[in-house]
Amino acid sequence: MNLSTISRKELIEKYLDSEKEINTLKEEIDRVKKEKEALEKELRKYKNSNTPPSAHPHLKPAIIGSVDVKPHKRGAPTGHSGTTRERKECDKARHIQAKECPGCHSKDISTINQKHQQQEEMPLEIQPIIVDVVRDVCRCNKCKLKFLARDDMTPIRGRFGVNLMVLVIFLKFIVRGVLRKTTSFLEASFAFKLAPASVQAIIERAADAGEKEYSALKQKIRTAKLLYIDETSFRVLGKNWWVWAFRSDTDLLLVIRNSRGSNVLEEILSKDYSGTVICDCWRAYDFLTNASIQRCWAHLLRKSKELNSVTGKHFHKKIHTLFEQIIKFNTKERTEKQRQKKYEQMTTKLQKITKQYSKYEDCQTVTKYISFHIESWFTCIKTTGVQPTNNYAEQAIRETVLVRKIIGAFRSEKGTKTYETLASLIATWQIQKLDIKKELHRMLSTNLC
C-alpha cells in the first residue's frame, strides 16, 4: 500500500498502536529493572565484604584460576583418630547362643567357632534420684552468727541439683537446644518432666552463679595486650541490638548491647586502652586513639574482589600481592628494626597503589576505604604476633550467629545478660582447653552450695 493511499485515520491508528507497544515495552523494562535491583539487594545480604565466603559455599565460584574444581568428598583432617575404639575392661559379659538354623529352622546345630566383640551401652532407663535434704541451722557461740550448714554439693536454694543444672546447660549451650526441645529430651532420655520455664530458671541461676567470673573475665580483657574485636546484630524484643566479641589469646568476652557505637568500647576497654586491636574499618574503632590498630585484610580483599572491571581486577591483584608479602614476611623471626623498616616500605607502597587507582571511578570506593586508615594496614608487620585478618574474632562470634539462626531473637533483656555470661565463660574454657563439665561443677558448687 502506498503512503499516498493510506488515509489519515489509518495513520493515526498505526501511530497509536505503535505508541501502545512502546509503552508496554517500557513498562516491561521498568519491571525487569526493579526485579534486578531487588535481587541484587537480596544478594548483597550474603555476598559482601563483611561476610566470609565460608559462610555461603553455594556462592563460591566453581573455578579457581584456570583449574576446574571437581566436587569431592572431604578427607579426614590431619591427626584424625578414626572410629576404632580401644578395648576396655568389661562390666558385664553376655554369651549369645543359637537355638536353631535361620535357614531351615533345624534344631540340630553345632558351634564351630566364636566371634568376640565389645560394645559400649547405656542403661535402658536413666532416672533422676530424689534427695531429701536436711540442713542444720547453726549459731556460733562465739560471735553469735547464725548460718546454714553447707556441703559444697547441694545448692542452698532451688529444687535442682548441680548435676542436673550442668546437664541442662550442656543441652542449651553445647547442643544448642531450645527450651521446648530441651524439656522433651530430658523426658525421653531421663524420664524427667520439666517445664520450659524451669529450664530457663536453671539457666538464669547458673548465670547468676557465674557473675563473679564474668566480671573477672571483663577485667582480663581490659588489660589484654592483644584483642580481636567483632560485632554482629541480634534482635532483642523486636529491636536491633549488637553482640560484641572481644577475644584475646586465652579469653573470649561477649557483651550484648543496644548500640554499635564507641560507647561500648568505652565501657569495656575505656578510652585509655593502649594495646593492639585487630578489627574491621567500622568507624566506632577510631575511638581507641591510644591503641595500635590492625585493619582486617580479609574485609579489604573481599571488597577489592568485587571490582569487575579490568582496572579493578588489576587493583585487586596488587592488593592481594601485598597481602602475600605480609604472610611471607611474618613466617620468619625479625628484629624490631627490620619490622619498622618493612612497615614504612609497605605503607608507602600501598599509598602509591591507592593514589594510582583513585583516578578510576569504579575503584574509588575501595581506595577511600584504604586511605581512611592508611597507617593501620601493616601493624601486623610492625608488631610481633599480630594477625593481618580478624578471623579469630569472626570465628569466636560464629557460635552466636548459629544461635541467632536457631532462636531468632531474645525475648527479654534479662535473656541477653544470661546468654553473654554463660556463653563467654564456656567459650573461654574451650579456648583454654579446660574440661567444661568440671568447670561448670566447680563454678556452681562454689557459688550456689
**H and E string:** HEEEEHHHHEEEHEEHHHHHHEHH
Largest sheet: 6 strands, mixed
> What proportion of the residues is helical, as a percent range?
40-55%
Mean pLDDT: 87
Radius of gyration: 32 Å
Would you kindly provide a brief summary of this structure?
The protein is of the alpha/beta class. It has 14 helices and ten strands.
Q: What does the model show?
A:
By secondary structure, the chain is α/β, with parallel strands linked by helices. The chain has a domain at 220-394. The protein has helices at 8-44, 162-174, 179-190, 196-209, 211-222, 262-268, 297-305, 310-329, 336-357, 364-371, 379-382, 391-407, 413-431, 436-448, and strands at 63-64, 67-68, 137-139, 146-148, 226-236, 239-247, 252-257, 276-279, 292-295, 409-410. Strand 6 (239-247) and strand 7 (252-257) form a beta hairpin. Helix 2 packs across helix 4 and helix 9 packs antiparallel against helix 10 (364-371). The N and C termini lie far apart (104 Å).
Give the helix/strand layout:
Elements: H1 8-44, E1 63-64, E2 67-68, E3 137-139, E4 146-148, H2 162-174, H3 179-190, H4 196-209, H5 211-222, E5 226-236, E6 239-247, E7 252-257, H6 262-268, E8 276-279, E9 292-295, H7 297-305, H8 310-329, H9 336-357, H10 364-371, H11 379-382, H12 391-407, E10 409-410, H13 413-431, H14 436-448
Parallel strand pairs: 5-8, 5-10, 8-9
Antiparallel strand pairs: 1-2, 3-4, 5-6, 6-7
Helix pairs in contact: 2-4, 2-14, 3-4, 4-13, 5-13, 7-8, 8-9, 9-10
